[in-house]
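JOB MANIFEST
job_type = single_chain_structure
chain_count = 1
residues = 485
[input]
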Amino acid sequence: MSHFKFIGLLVLTLCSCVGSSQKKKKPSKPNIIYILADDLGIGDLSTYGQKKFQTPNIDAMAAQGMKFTQHYSGAAVCAPSRSTLMTGQHTGHTSIRGNKELKGQDGQTPMPASSFTIAEMLKKEGYTTGAFGKWGLGYVGSEGDALNQGFDTFYGYNCQRRAHRYYPDYIWSNHEKVVLEGNDWTNTVTYAPDKIHEATLAFIEDNKDKPFFAYVPIVLPHAELISPKDSLLQKYIGKFDEVPFTNPYASDYGPDIIRNKYCTQATPYAAFASMVDRMDIYVGQIIAKVEELGIADNTIIMFTSDNGPHNAGGANPEYFNSAAGFKGIKRDLYEGGIRAPFIVKWPGKIKEGSVNKHVSAFWDVMPTLAEIIGVDTPAQSDGLSFLPSLLNEKNQKTHDYLYWEYSIKGGRKAVRMGKWKGVLYNATNNSEVELYNLELDETESTNIAAAHPEIVEKIKQLMKDAHRDSKLFPFKAGKNKNKVH
């Protein structure tokens, strides 16, 4: 062989090796697990300051990933918060803006077929998609059914009203009822969250060899307050200064129960702590499962809550400092109602133990995932990708403002604009916008609107500009008859 032929052959061989190496090194699209707690306050986690009980698995997740301190839920109640997450739109634009019941249906107002969800976006890119827990965006068979909104499989509560019961007589597996043996609305045998968690772990294992998206809207620790009578509950019995919850409607314990008719609970604080503890164990088991399967390095796990803490069924957010000192709770647009815990773990990508002050919200998740998988952000989205923050890069874009609206009790709106926070209650009753400087007053204790009329006017204009009329949820303050959960 001539010298030149040898060199040519060597070059071709090297090129072939490099190409082969590049193909092997090309990362697959990461698995995505998004865990959404229900009515968990930011202060209910020990990594965010809880002192009366511990959440060791979520604390460990924060130590191994990134903890955000200025992340916001999509709304102050369940359904609209989930809608903002799924569509990447704030409550001035997203399709579901309240918890609106439908007579004769086992579920709430359905998300329209025209909606484009995170699940649909990921499914188009080859992801297997599953939802496990509480859906609440459309009854079974409706256009808002999870199976009609991009999910390959669903297991759990389709109707969020039924999710007020932890021992229901049935839950759903896609379009089939799963009867929970021993539960008949008076007997408590099969704890539904445990069954749902088993299905979550099975989905992860079944799809370990291909990209998957697991949306895990855990029902805990929403009221009612009740736990299995096991060692987890016993751990907290006698630990707190209990105020028993005696419900006058407790005997009316049937499938037609409406909100706030929760079971009598002699030890509501112990029940609540054990429910958060159980949720923490679920999170730990999900993390352990991806590690056991050898897919941890190619799996992003996100954890948050859909809104602030509740005070139903005997819960006492003040006793536990569940809002971490922030003003307000669930249904409020003050920080306590919408400031959410947010932790992200992605081994090898996110710096361990990092804390991030970037201001973000649920509608940012869609563009973030779009950037991660290499597709354009859907034009509908109001969000901004926070991937640069996750990767500790310096090109992070920031919001000009964040916006919330909620048509109850006269109508409520809020705007976060940089350090400024504007809150308007009784929107059509000539109420004035309250103004707070969150850099100096995170607890929103001092209304300084009178001192900054020009800022107030900007916020008023944003409240008008950010709202798009909705036929499903007209913003008619003071006249809205939507039931609240």
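[summary]
Residues 435 and 448 are 5 Å apart (CA to CA).
The mean pLDDT is 90.
exit_status = 0
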